[in-house]
Amino acid sequence: MALALCLQVLCSLCGWLSLYISFCHLNKRRSYEWSCRLVTFTHGVLSIGLSAYIGFIDGPWPFTHPGSPNTPLQVHVLCLTLGYFIFDLGWCIYFQSEGALMLAHHTLSILGIIMALVLGESGTEVNAVLFGSELTNPLLQMRWFLRETGHYHSFTGDVVDFLFVALFTGVRIGVGARLLFCEMVSPTPKWFVKVGGVAMYAVSWCFMFSIWRFAWRKSIKKYHAWRNRRSEERQLKHNGHLKIH
Fold it and tell me: What is the domain partition of the chain in residue ranges?
């Protein structure tokens, strides 16, 4: 069983690495980070679909059955995601592209998935955490691509930012709190699994503070820009011309 899991993770790692190499060849004029973020975007979309199917259709429901035995589909998805996180963590360390908080997030994710695979249980809630964590990932990558291509300061950029902040707050913080509560009050999960859940939720709050600061600064900037436009419009309507300072 352990050998089979290791082979699945190894195949996943090789698959993500091969995809990255392919993107590098297809985007030779772009940076390595461009290709890595394409891999991240691909994993995000794929993991959202798979984890949503597991949580909402295949089951079991994570809010009522935390700590339940892993299903075969959960094992496959966790192995697929573990290979990705190993790839991405290695990439981030090699290129020194991320700070300590993101590295801590990736490390906790890897340890949490390994723990669920070794125990043969708690894949239900780990899969739910995967869904909540990856739900905002495509939006984060879209934001970076918009900035790189010079289209970030647009209506599309504003929509992406709004959806990212709203989903992160509502799902990772709001729904995440409910999931953590169900995990803590249930007698089934192991105590160290609960500790891991608390650690992941604490990391989400660290991200949340940073996101709220960004949203506040952007909102204030947008408000001042709107007031300036209104002032210029009133001045033009009143005098027939703009006052040049």
Answer: 1-206
